[in-house]
Amino acid sequence: MAYTVPKLTDYSAEALEKAVSECLAACEAEADEVRNSAELKLFRDRWMARKNGILTQINEVWLKGSPKDAKRDAGRQLNLIKEQVGQLVKAVKVPRVPPLTEDYWPNPTTTAPAWHGRPDLPRLCVEDEALIASQRVDVTLPGIRRPIGAEHPVIRTMHEIVGVFQKLGYSVAEGPVVETDYYNFEALNFPPNHPARDTQDTLFIAGQQSKPQRERLLLRTHTSPVQIRTMEKMRPPIRIVIPGTVHRNDPPDASHSPMFHQIEGLAVDTNITFGDLKGTLDHAMKALFGTSVKTHFRPSFFPFTEPSAELYVTCFICGGSGKRGPDPCRPCKQTGWIEVLGCGMVDPNVFEFVKDNGYDPKKVSGFAFGMGVDRLALLKYGVDDIQLFFQGDVRFLEQFG
Ligand code: PHE
Q1: pLDDT on residue 65
Q2: Residue 251, preceding bond cis, omega within 30 degrees?
Q3: Residue 211 CA, ligand 1 centroid: distance in Å
């Protein structure tokens, strides 16, 4: 019968001594039975585990249950048991696996001997096998299936557009979303207090009034500040595209979101002309929307480009007819044309801000463009509400998987 801690009612010296010797005898007998390291672990845990080991139980049952005047004696006996049990556990010897020596390996010059395991190792006993079996992992069981996500339609569109320009030799640049007034406005030729700033519906970071205006923080309203940041770092010639998030103080509705995405483009070299701009963007639109698409430039205004234009493509929903069967085509408002981006030749005033890095407006010229990715994704996938892109509804997103 395995030893269990008896309740003590009699705390006399003889009774205590008897209980102690019974306990130690049991421990010694169990120590004699230990054959291998797995059994040794079980044995050690049974007696010494902090949580519910026999020593802990004795502490609970004997010491805490003892009358006040017997506490001292009981405590002394308990310490004795602890020490003796500790020694008994320590004294148990189990066979150790001897270190490998060269002799174990079959000699490659002779034929390999039949391999029956190392005879010098202790054979597995039944308990070891049970222990191993209880911890065995069945590697043939099917795993947990994790559904593979899909690229978000806006990000997918972004990658597609960036890819078109990468094939033309453009590299990718990025910049911060929280931007200074200097990069978002001043260096892009929006002078302080100029009314052109009003068009940007800017979200300003609070508590910036004590700083000089150009250092005040805001959420960038376009990706154009990265034009300046890149030109400060890289000398001409450069060809870059800049994908990123921008913010404007627009209340959300089916076609507006206070957060949206843009891709900016910038090419600077000697002798870049408006013809290069037209050719590049015409190629890009055909690569994105199909070769039958036509492009069309209308004059516009941006403080950082001169001349400036808006690029229109033939509506890829109605093919430019303005009609869908007998119905009016909604995406192009029956005009047959869809505005896709703003662009123009880099204004010499912009180069003035980075002149020291090789951008002398007398020597270099360039073009820039900026497009709204979300709007293009809406058109491309025939989605009629921009909010769907940002609500994270899986039923919507799954359709792009
Ligand atoms: N930054 C402009 C906007 O957000 C777009 C643009 C980029 C226009 C580059 C011209 C050149 O409206």
Answers
A1: 78
A2: no
A3: 27
With residues binned 3-state (H G I as helix, E B as strand, rest as coil), the percentages for the chain, rounded to 5, are 40, 15, 40
Task: State the Cα–Cα distance between residues 219 and 153, nearest whole angstrom.
Answer: 24
Which atom of ligand 1 is closest in space to residue 308's alpha carbon?
10
> Could you tell me if 311 and 341 are in contact, meaning their C-beta atoms sit under 8 angstroms apart?
yes
For the record, the structure tokens of 266 come out as: 């910038």
Q: Is the CB of 305 under 6 A from ligand 1?
A: yes
* Torsion 100-102-104-108 (CA) sign: positive
Residues 79-138: tens digit of each pLDDT: 888 888 888 888 888 776 555 554 544 445 545 445 556 667 766 677 777 888 888 888
- With a 6 Å cutoff on the Cβ, whether 368 touches ligand 1 is yes
- Record the tokens describing residue 171, joined without a space: 């590299």
Any idea which residue has 């025939």 for tokens?
A: 382
Position 73 pLDDT exceeds 60: yes
Ligand 1 pocket, residue 222 CB under 6 Å: yes
> From atom 2 of ligand 1, which residue's Cα is the shortest distance away?
370
Find the 70 Cα to ligand 1 centroid distance in Å: 90
CB of 261 within 6 A of ligand 1: the answer is no
